[in-house]
Amino acid sequence: MFEVAELGQSLSREEFDQQVPSLRTRLLEMQQALLDESFPVIVLVSGSDGAGKAVLVNRLNEWFDPRYLRTLAFDDKTQDERERPDYWRFWQALPQKGHIGLYIGSWYSDPIAKRVAKTLNDIELDGYLAHIRIFERMLVEDGALVIKLWLHLSKEQQQLRLQQLEADPATAWRVTEKDKRHLALYDSFRSIAEHTLRQTSTAEAPWVVIESTDPHYRDITVAEHLLERIQHHQALHTCSDTPLEDENAEAVALIHRQKTLLGNLDLTLALDKTSYHQQLEHWQGQLSLLARRAYQQRVSMVIVLEGWDAGGKGGLIRRIVPALDARNYQIIPIAVPTDEEAAHHYLWRFWRHIPRDGRVTIYDRSWYGRVLVERVEGFASRAEWLRAYSEINDFESQLVEHGTVVVKFWLHIDKDEQLKRFKEREKISYKRHKITDDDYRNRERWADYEQAVNDMVERTSTEVAPWHLIEANNKRFARIKALKTLCQQLEQQLGG
Fold it and tell me: What is the model's pTM?
């Protein structure tokens, strides 16, 4: 693969100076037009040591308008990053729609480095690469343009480049012992890099290998490539005012079952007040003890609360938090996305609040809005909500792989109980604000929402993050069952 980048491509200084003014103008015009587009541009700059990644990025910052281009370098993880799933830091860095993100290092850096260092074997590396393909496909399907550049130097050129840098007192500091060790491992690095590029160069996010011996050729070639790829993507979006549907989406039939999981719940289950208060004290005490152990063992927890309007999510939260240390949890209420949130992938705003090790995040509604309200109300296309099932499963599996306990509740009530609670809220001054016209309007779509919930549970109740369906017509029963479930899930993770 890398032989194509060892042909001796070059560009004279005169040719370079002649091309730059026109090229910069076209880049800036393209970037200005990009601001009105509904997709972000993600540019990964990877490659050989000494190939000029930092120099190239500096050049692009000079040629582009830096107000709409964000540059990030991913090096060793910070303490904050180590205490969250691997991809947390990459989600934080994603550019908003209409902007360009320029990255030195990326989600490829760690797996390649670990394989070169032999802390990963081939099978483990391929596992990392499978995650990468899923991640990039998720970004692309949401509209992002992913451009992956590999700056290549031959072994001889890399050695010469390091010698030149080291010989100049002004640049000698840039050559580290790490660079020298990497040069000694060049052959292994090249083989692993080729394998990585072959496995992850997909139709939606192909790798482009750039010969980087001559910096003038490298910089002009990269800039021209960016210009061509972005303009092509703009043209594709201009051709269609609406996102293209997945051509196979209509072929995916969601089964209408005579018996459903929700329909099989016994909503007559109840607890009397005496039993409720006795059990509430017991399970809150158990949760408090387990939460302290989880903090000491650096085990984080994500609690997802979904359910019908007036299903009791707020009341359950008020019974959970007394058992937790206020310094170690956060409650994230999910409403209509802000402008900033709408300018990113729908999972972006949820990744932002993933807890550090030992902490707890409670989501009052969640990423499941994509397959519930957005599906039913038509805010997401059929292709978007269909692929969300696998995107969500992958998201949650990453949390669990990191060691996070993921507990998902659906609080289920029937239509009559919901109406009764609506009427009760209207009579209480401090609860009236909870009732809106949309609450009553949504009742007209009850059957559609129920079908969406059944599909959601069927497709996203996984072995690592199962759904817990709570019979919630009786609030006391629902709260105790949920608290007991939380304790059981934490105890299982903590080892009894």
Answer: 0.87
